[in-house]
């Protein structure tokens, strides 16, 4: 799937989530912590990455070469679980399977070309997706909140808050007592 379709189809999956969500107290209890963990990983990663200027190898980049995608996977999985809808789960899974492998390959190729020797050493020590249990590689980058802001991670954090509010609101409305009929 062409990566240029990633954002528009992401919005389409997001709309599908909103239309099909059927949260329960248990689904929220299980799903939302996953989403928060995913967003925490994304914030941590965003504070290390200085896109196209330097190779991020510290923080979460010492555990996996793709912590933003790992965080997004956990965030999306959390929302899918919280929605308590098999259709949402399948749509999210299909979206991630369609885009993430190819986007990660594209980015790896770019980084390998731009940061040749640094990338080779880092890639030899740090797995592409599933994280190591202990940090590896050069660990040269440092976290800054300024980078988090520059990378506009606040948008994803805000989006998670909006989705969480909609999930709770939907749960609340679905459990209101029926109005008496006259």
How would you explain this protein's 3D organization?
It is a single chain. The longest helix is centred in the middle third of the chain and has 29 residues, at 86-114. The protein has helices spanning 6-20, 25-46, 67-83, 86-114, 116-125, 145-150, 154-174. The protein has one domain: Four Helix Bundle (Hemerythrin (Met), subunit A), CATH 1.20.120. With 182 residues, it is mainly α.
Topology:
Elements: H1 6-20, H2 25-46, H3 67-83, H4 86-114, H5 116-125, H6 145-150, H7 154-174
Report the order of strands and helices: HHHHHHH
CATH class: Mainly Alpha
The number of distinct helices, counting runs of at least 4 residues, comes to: 7
Count of domain modules: 1
Give the percentage of residues in beta strands: under 5%
Low-confidence blocks of residues: none
How many runs of DSSP E, i.e. beta strands? 0
Radius of gyration: 19 Å
CATH architectural group: Up-down Bundle
Question: Can you tell me the CATH topology?
Answer: Four Helix Bundle (Hemerythrin (Met), subunit A)
| Bulk shape | elongated
Structural class: mainly alpha
Biggest sheet features? none
Helix content: 55-70%
What is the rounded distance between the termini? 55 Å
Arithmetic mean pLDDT = 90
Keyword list:
0% strand, Four Helix Bundle (Hemerythrin (Met), subunit A), mainly alpha, single chain, 182 residues
Short description:
This protein is mainly α. It has helices spanning 6-20, 25-46, 67-83, 86-114, 116-125, 145-150, 154-174. The protein has 7 helices and no strands.
